[in-house]
From TrEMBL:
UniProt cross-references to SUPFAM superfamilies, sorted A to Z: WD40 repeat-like (SSF50978)
PROSITE patterns for the chain: WD_REPEATS_1 (PS00678), WD_REPEATS_2 (PS50082), WD_REPEATS_REGION (PS50294)
Protein name from the UniProt record: POC1 centriolar protein homolog A
Role description: May play an important role in centriole assembly and/or stability and ciliogenesis.
InterPro entries assigned to the protein according to its UniProt record, in alphabetical order: WD40/YVTN_repeat-like_dom_sf, WD40_PAC1, WD40_repeat_CS, WD40_repeat_dom_sf, WD40_rpt, WDR55/POC1
The keyword Coiled coil is assigned to this record: yes
WD repeats: 9-50, 51-82, 93-134, 135-176, 177-218, 218-259, 260-292
Family: Belongs to the WD repeat POC1 family.
Record field: compositional bias (Basic and acidic residues): 333-344
GO cellular component terms, A-Z: centriole; ciliary basal body
Keywords: Coiled coil, Repeat, WD repeat
GO biological process, one term: microtubule-based process
Amino acid sequence: EDPSLERHFKGHRDAVTSVDFGLNKKQLVSGSMDSCLMIWSMKPQMRAYRLVGHKDAVLCVQFSPSGHLVASGSRDKTVRLWMSNLKGEPTVFKAHTATVRSVHFSSDGQSFVTASDDKSIKVWTVQRQKFLFSLSQHINWVRCARFSPDGRLIVSASDDKTVKVWDKTSRECIHSFCEHGGFVNHVDFHPSGNCIAAGGTDSTVKVWDVRMNRLLQHYQGNSAVNSLSFHPSGNYLVTASSDSTLKILDLLEGRLLYTLHGHQGPASCVAFSRDGDLFASGGSDEQVMVWKTNFDTADYGDVVKPQKCGSSMDGTHGTGSEMDCDIHHKKTKPQDSGRTHQQQEEETSLANTLEHIMGQLDVLTQTVSILEQRLTLTEDKLKECLENQQKIIQNKTN
């Protein structure tokens, strides 16, 4: 059965920028360019609540794992923590020196990470909202930052066209992925924690293995990818694009499953519920839409073996690669990517050899440059000596 539109909510007065489901799908929160948050009840006929306080556009919202808190980040440079039961005033603190574009809780709910136009990523404690540390190697706006499921890694996406993976303990960048041809709008971890997916203005979605630091899958679309979300099973990925569509990708077969039309104008955000039965989307049309996935959960079984897969988001077959992210098996026939494992190993070996040769050439170039400098210095000294000798001879002659 195909995904279906269940409900749509109207209440925002400007583009919707972010959506997230609460625990048990009882609530849905959305942020908007209208500077407000809305908390929607999934029960019919229940009223929605508008949370007012930010002085500028709200660009990111998220429920804490327990569902008791909602975090929001804004163009007003602050982060606010709201009680999801709407009791009491929110905790407000100035998190960055520029727009806050992303906020994300760790899976244990003890800390959260923020990303900003000030080019930094910051980690905070939830209990006292205490600043812990900052990560600052990006050279342009940071659009998104996410904890890994086990909390040991942080991944970030930036307008410097890179995706960086950070070790939370050492606070160092352990790898940078530079394959995107444009700004990287969104990034997230696969539920296994072994892979990440990112989408950007180059209209692509890329999936990498963070253990081997290699590209696994590449999907080419027709317009900028603004947001993405993994299904809890890890088998599917949903994206929101500027061409107003939502696309569901099958990560096992490496192909586009569905293209969903609902929003009038760019779709800016999308997120699965925690059980994967629903997903929500928001767009520039000021609407929040709730969709039923209708995936056959009985098809989830054993962990799948590595297989070839790759696709274009317009439905055509694309670049083949391997996917091994502890993804669960779905009862469909695997699709051949057109490249053998041996060919990939040969290509990797060739790439490593070329990289080694380039490194050796760099060393030789540097050596030649040093020798040239020394030769030039030697010539200058010889000239100086000759001139001095000539002066001595002239003085004696006189």
